[in-house]
Specification:
single chain, mainly alpha, Cytochrome Bc1 Complex, Chain D, domain 2, 6 helices, globular, disordered N terminus
């Protein structure tokens, strides 16, 4: 499922008041008739998280741009030096939205790395708190289809 279809699907689900679920749809069917409301993400151990399709799109742009996440996680986020972010296997957490935000902010120091790969806080990029939340929303959307 491409990013545009995934964003359209999230927007459609938000309008229907549903949480994200696995579904097949076309771009035409995913086009909302009115502005999107924020789509709630499933509750996570650190508290309820919510994000909009626009936040996911911003995170996609940052992931593949100034955030430089793609340099280690690959352009499809399927892993290079860093781990795959598109599957259900998480190395340093359970993969909740809040945990992904925390992981990006904290990074993975050598002494905590289970794979031997170090990630500096915020991936070494200059990211605002809002940028981190956007990237986390994008990563969460990839692994929680």
């Amino acid at each position: 499922m491409n990013a545009r279809t995934r964003i359209g699907l999230l927007a459609s689900l938000a309008m229907a008041g549903a949480s994200p679920v696995l579904a097949q749809t076309s771009d035409a069917a995913a086009t909302p008739a009115k502005p999107e409301a924020p789509a709630p993400a499933p509750a996570s151990p650190g508290g309820a998280a919510s994000y909009s399709p626009e936040l996911v799109a911003k995170g996609d742009t940052l992931f593949h741009g100034s955030g430089n996440c793609y340099a280690c996680h690959g352009s499809n986020a399927e892993g290079l030096v860093g781990p795959n972010l598109t599957d259900a296997e998480w190395i340093h957490s359970k993969g909740s939205y809040d945990e992904i935000v925390a992981q990006i902010n904290h990074g993975v120091p050598k002494e905590e790395s289970k794979s031997g790969i170090v990630m500096p806080p915020k991936g070494g990029a200059t990211l605002s708190d809002d940028d981190v939340k956007a990237i986390a929303a994008y990563v969460y959307s990839l692994s929680h289809k």
